Amino acid sequence: MKLHIITQIEENYGAHDWDGEGQCPQYWKFKGGNDYFIMLDGFRADHEFADKNLRMIVDGVRDQIECDNVGFKEYILDYNIVDDDFMTDFEKSQLEYEGEIRYPARVLETV
Hints:
Blueprint: E1 2-12, E2 28-30, E3 35-39, H1 50-65, E4 67-68, E5 72-82, H2 89-98, E6 106-107
Parallel strand pairs: 3-6
Antiparallel strand pairs: 1-2, 1-3, 1-5, 4-5
């Protein structure tokens, strides 16, 4: 099994013309998101502390995923446990239309 993490990306279109003086104009637009996986070898989903352990795993990789500055934000929306053979919608569409997955979801290493 593996942990699937889903993110949201926002881009500040107001930052494109900003000259760096004063406050940056705010015009945020949603731009989709990314998928990340963490392999959960030996993880027990039926353990009484499974939810807490998952939160700790996500918090442990948050700095590898999230970003927040004047022009760009990426943050975690949700996460869940999936089977080892699970593919994201983007991976499925690549396989269907191109016959191969050229851009797989990024697999993160826990510390």
